[in-house]
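G.,

No rush on this.
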Amino acid sequence: MAGTAAPTRPAELRAHNLARLLRAIHAGGGQLTRAELTRQLNLARGTATVLVRDLAGRGLIEELTSPVDASVQRARGRPTGIPSAHSCGPVALAVDLRDDSFTVAAFELTGRCTVLDRQERGAGSGTGMLGDVADRLKLRNRQFGGRMVGVGVAVPSPVSGGSMVQPTLPEWQDVDVAAALGPAGSPGPGPVLTGNDATLAGLAEARRGVLRGVSVALHLHVATGIGGVLLADGLPVTGAYGSAGEFGHMPLTGIQEPCRCGSVGCWELDAGARGLLRAVGQPEQGDRIIQAEQVIAAAATDPACGRALTHVARALGRGIGALVNAQDPEAVGLSGLAADMYQADPDSVTAGYLSTLMRFRRADPPALLPSTLGDLGALTGASELVFDAFLTPRGLGTWRSPGQKTA
């Protein structure tokens, strides 16, 4: 377009390459040598050296010593370092918000995680719990100071325009999460970014878990309900309004009961935590996820729990088969209770899965892959929202190195 500045001006090109390199360091988990990063990004060796020094000088990374890379040793006879997270570098805070509890964690560049807080809602209100989250975030902001580059929040609801539009707690309906977490919508420096918990769990598996490198993947996360996401080349397909992946509200298993969402026959009534508790005859008391985990753990010794698990595991498998027919993924990731059920009763999940697959898919069905991130999945995905925003020329422009920060 006329009047648009050329993107190859020296300052802009340098900012672009700094962001590219830092994204690659983050994506590689701080495990790639400088030589490997140079080849991956197709940079000149001298350019890569200057960029690494620049990032280190800004307090964003530090270069660790490493064994000599074999190919570099043959070519140049010198060792190469591993650019990794600086000990005083950027921190993303992540929140896994559930209807009955929340967890707060800190993520460094390259993905290293420290869980900081976990709190049950108890008898308090959902609005009160959001206030508790805001208080914890403000406390952690003081702890990390200017290192904090944003907050990512995984919520149990589809999200539209930053608001929860079908939350598990009615009092959260249409709540703007960022606005609820502090004055002017921010507990500290950096943006507050919100996403559906199941979508973020899938993003995390594609970035750092079992779905890494899978070109077309389906991810399913079972908690109180069932959500998920289709990922293409590691990127979530979130739909026209950002709320795709509500697989739990599809009539996949033939049940005809009304659902809290306003529809009838939703899959989550059969295969979510509520379905498992109903199948075993337990009332919902407190944290439904913990209750469901206890039923799964007892299934091997308690006949009633065993029968309930078999029923729900088959329902889970049948729904997965229907989704595979529709989405055609290479592999299916499972997290939350989906992973727990599959690991506890793989035969029942597989039997249900194969029963609904189209015939031509059964000889070589997409693999069912339990999460390698466990309870950190939604938190990890929430942190990736923050780093996606920060690891850009504009985002890096907001960073002040420790030496530049004022007391």
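When you get to it, here's the other one too:
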Amino acid sequence: MPDDFLKLLGESQRTLDEGFAHLPPNPATPLGESASEILQTVATRLQDNYPYGHPLYAGQMLKPPHPIARAAYALAMSVNPNNHALDGGRASSAMEIEAVAALANMFHLPQHLGHLSSGGTFANLEALWVAGQLAHTSNGEPMAVAASDQAHYTHSRISGVLGLPFISIPSDDRGRMDLTILESLLETNKIGTVVVTLGTTAIGSVDPLDKILALQHKYTFRIHVDAAYGGYFTLAQNLSPETRAAFDAIPHADSIVIDPHKHGLQPYGCGCVLFRDPAVGRLYKHDSPYTYFSSKDLHLGEISLECSRAGASAVALWATQQLLPYTPGSPFAQGLESGHTVALKLYERLSQSPHFLIPIAPPQLDIAFWAARAATPEASSALAQRIFDEAATRDLHLALAKLPMSFFPQNSWQDSNRSGEQYSVTCLRSVLMKPEHLLWLDHLWQRLDAAAVASIGSIPR
């Protein structure tokens, strides 16, 4: 790949340079004699990382960007466009509009207003900022934002920044928002926005959006879908019926967030916010008397809270979409399906192992988690840490997560009186988001099993 990557990048760079060849020569600033040594130092220091791009890295949500995204990003950086306004990035702004439209089309939105952002956090902030302006009491008081206790912590933080009350809704034993509790709180008329998570950060659980939409017919509230992690799974054709129903309901949500820098094969940072009603653009209206006089067209800065944004992110996303379009059954969609398949296969193997405890429900997306088999939650947590460390010595990199004991069957530990939601256990966790993980399952399992045997054998008798 490096030879092809550099060749394609070099050819494209020459084509780009030809577009400005008519200008008087402007010699490039020389790198200097020390540049090579500096870059070698950088390369050496960057070795102090986990092998994020390798299939044996199956820990956190880190998926390598596609080579065409890397090349397009590097190519755009020679121009360094700023997508805040057309004057700062004409071509890249047009590409952003097309790339965002492709995302909206993937979700089957009949119309939309949206843009890219620096990531899911800022995209969610914009969605809740809009919601806060639209959801308020008759006295003008802000109404609360509600999200499950498995939703990303950014929602409570964002609500604090925006001055909006925040309510945490307990989750059920599968990590999904408890609808009975949600409805009891909706009856109080204090909730203005419900954040529905399609793919929680910890375990990839999917809130039942279709059922929450049904509640919207009884109560008045906005629905914001945080699909930063799981959004692209709308293309997958091997989801369970209940998970499929949640994704099929996305077109009816008021706003959606998705992160192309997760499953979308993009470099950091690339998030996206979409609104179903383009009329919310009026909330962004502002005057900028000191910049950007040469363009009369509406620019992306007029529908975004962020100002300067890397146009290179839009170029990279657009290029990737041309190579890997968002259609069911496509190679891109098949990569998502393979992640779900390998998570289910790993869950099955874990269920047959004498070393591990599996949760009540199988993975809804491509994240698997499990506990180490031990007499008590404390012993299980300690053993999980040892297995995690031992697996790393075998070049298998997993993750650890402290999760509610209620996610596991009640008889999982002897101390059955401590199986309530307020108690947690440290679990091993694997994000199987690389398509290659399906082919590498045997390699992963051999290392995991060996790490478990070695860790159990190290327990003092």
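Residues 289-297 have pLDDT under 50 and may be disordered. The longest helix spans residues 331-351.

Enjoy the weekend,
O.
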